[in-house]
Amino acid sequence: MAGIYIHIPFCKKACTYCDFHFSTTFEKYRNDLVNALCEELIERKDTLANQPIATIYFGGGTPSLLTEEELINILSTLRENYDVQDGAEVTLEANPDDIDISKTDVWAKAGINRLSVGLQSFNTESLEWMNRAHSVEQSIACIGIAQAAGIKNISIDLIYGLPNMSEEVWREEIRTALKLGVQHISAYCLTVEPNTVLSTWVKKEKIQPASNELQHEHFTILQEELVNAGFEHYEISNFALPNYISKHNSSYWKGAHYLGIGPSAHSFDGKYRSWNVSNNQRYIKGIVSQQPEYDFELLTKENRFNEALLTGLRTKWGVRIAVLESILPLPQEFYQQIKALENKGWAELLEGVLYLTNEGKSWADKIAQDLFV
Predict the structure, then answer these.
(1) Residue 101: CATH number of its domain
(2) Number of domains in the chain
(3) C-beta separation of 127 from 134 below 8 A
(4) How far apart are CA 372 and CA 12, in angstroms?
(5) Do residue 191 and residue 330 come from a single domain?
(6) Are 209 and 319 in a shared domain?
(7) Long-range contacts of 319-323 (CB under 8 A, 24+ apart)
């Protein structure tokens, strides 16, 4: 089974921390871009030939800015050209200020059965600092609107590790989120990405990022509050109630094949990784001329080893040593490193599977990097 990701590069505003591909001046060519998305779906239909499509994910950008006609056009094209499974998980990322009764009804009728809502915070000052377009009141109200429309699988995003965010404020953010009755929560530590407003502020010393110690404490609070509320911590940044794990994102972490449609979208077929040009006009021109602009790489054994290690360690499923050995022989030094991690209380090797402990999850990227070949 495989998945399809569709990138919608439309945004009302530029968030201070975001480094995803997007545009705030898209109205003059939005029709051309949507048509190009549909054309790319048709042109690449053989990419996943004979593979049932289990998940569809509209990401961005801000997919909730799509009109009813645009959304239906894309989904109809997809279903006409791919073997979409009955009951496939179909996720749409949405911003709170785009969610109203008319839109949620359209989404539900179009087959959207999972919403990922970018709430980010329940604090007015934090939302303004992030340059978000919605209010705290909209954040709370929009979830009830989506639930009333019959969408029963709702995920929300939160961000922690903000400058000057106290432990008490973060704990209250989580508890407010739990009161909404959502099934899934993704919580991301604020990172300073290159070429963002945030990175400029840091360089100019307008702000001081939160310390590693405070971010670690926020992560510990996150684990404690959500696990106590019945959520399963199944991936470093993701928590779900029973039976509500994100199928689409889980397929990435398990190495499933996926097709990325749209500017900047990535694809993976087990051997090759490719990514479309991160420029809307060049993307459109390439699709229209049937000369799509993209880059690709053949994954080496080292690439595959490191990726299996990195993605596996981030999840509750861990990484099977046998899988790593099937890619590259493991030196004795590798097992010595694992033993050292166990002694620190950061990892466990159980029945041939390497897992991170709750403490180890705070340092997942560093642990994986230290184990890379």
Answers:
(1) 3.20.20.70
(2) 2
(3) yes
(4) 40
(5) no
(6) no
(7) 319/353, 319/354, 320/352, 320/353, 320/354, 321/349, 321/352, 321/353, 321/354, 322/352
| Residue 204 token pair | 């100019």
| Burial grade of 246 (CB within 10 A; 0-12, 13-18, 19 or more) | buried
- Beta-carbon contacts of 91 under 8 Å, excluding residues fewer than 6 positions away, are 55, 56, 57, 58, 112, 114, 115, 116, 155, 246, 248
Written as six digits, the tokens of 173 are 């953010």
Q: What is the chain's length?
A: 373
Q: What is the pLDDT of residues 33-68, one digit of tens each?
A: 999 999 999 999 999 988 999 999 999 999 999 999
User: What angle, 0 to 180 degrees and rounded to 10, lies between the N-to-C axes of helices 364-371 and 332-344?
Assistant: 160
**330: containing domain:** 301-371
Q: What is the CATH number of the domain that holds 327?
A: 1.10.10.10
Question: Quick check: 91 and 115 in contact, CB under 8 A?
Answer: yes
Residues 35 and 30: their CA atoms lie apart, in Å, by 9
Residue 24, pLDDT above cutoff 80? yes
Measured N-to-C along each axis, helices 68-81 and 30-43 cross at an angle, to the nearest 10 degrees, of: 10
- Token pair belonging to 27: 């109205």
Q: In what order do the strands lie in the sheet with 347-350?
A: 319-320, 353-356, 347-350
Lookup: tokens for 250: 């889980």
**Whole-angstrom distance, CA of residue 154 vs CA of residue 152:** 6
Q: Is residue 272 part of a domain?
A: no
Q: Is 270 within a domain?
A: no
Domain final position from 253, 286, 314: 253
Cα(254)–Cα(29) distance, rounded to whole angstroms? 36
Q: What pLDDT, on the 0 to 100 scale, is given for residue 329?
A: 95
54 lies in some domain: yes
From start to end of 262-330, where are the E strands? Answer: 266-268, 272-276, 294-298, 319-320
**295 inside domain:** no
Whether 202 shows a pLDDT value over 60: the answer reads no
> CB-based contacts of 17: which residues, under 8 Å, 6+ apart?
130, 159, 190, 191, 192, 193, 196, 197, 198
What is the number of other CB atoms lying within 10 angstroms of the CB of residue 16?
18
Same domain flag for 35 and 152: yes
Specify whether 110 is located in the same domain as 215. Answer: yes
Q: Which amino acid is at 103?
A: K
Question: What predicted TM-score, i.e. pTM, was given to this entire model?
Answer: 0.93
